[in-house]
Amino acid sequence: MKPVTILMADDDPLDQLLTREAFEEAKALNPLYFVENGLELMRYLRRESPYEDKERYPTPGIVLLDLNMPKKDGRECLREIRSDPELQHLPVVVMTTSSREEEVFQSYDLGANSYITKPVDFEKLVAQIQAFNTYWCSIVELPDD
């Protein structure tokens, strides 16, 4: 598997911690970065302050996107990413607690590449991360930076 930089936008510190631990438990070698809201996500992706330094904040190959965040929610971010010629190719995987059918449909309508419902159980989260990692980092061809 090739290491792919993953940027996760999620405002919940516990979800961030559990995701980091699940990546470690799954032995996923991907560099994993976090932003806490949609405003920070878009600043990161557009290399706006304080995210100008590419070494400190590498270009992500995949975005994991929570839908319900403060300042700018995931739906707004997805709309902006898909309408920006510089970002529109970036794979965005919605990873959220909601499994409501309208959320799933809306996410795909806005251009999500996948929709994953976060499991509550840690072992299920690890299995989910393993499957995610295998698919997105081993099977799928991703665009280069």
Note the main attributes of this structure.
single chain; 40% helix; alpha/beta; Rossmann fold; 5 strands; 5 helices
Summarize the helix and strand pattern as letters.
EHEHEHEHEH
Poorly predicted residue ranges = none
Strand order of the largest sheet: 2-1-3-4-5
CATH superfamily label: Response regulator
End-to-end Cα distance, whole Å, is 18 Å
Helix content: 40-55%
Number of domains: 1
Number of helices: 5
Structural class given helices, strands, pairing? Answer: alpha/beta
Task: Using the 3D structure, state the CATH architecture.
Answer: 3-Layer(aba) Sandwich
Residue share in β-strands: 5-15%
Architecture overview:
It is a single chain. α1 (13-25) crosses α5 (122-139) and α2 runs parallel beside α3 (74-83). The protein has a 5-stranded parallel sheet with strand order 2-1-3-4-5, with helices on both faces. The chain has one domain: 3-Layer(aba) Sandwich (Rossmann fold). The protein is 40% helix and 14% strand. The chain has 145 residues and is of the alpha/beta class. The protein contains 5 helices and 5 strands. The model has no long low-confidence stretch (mean pLDDT 91).
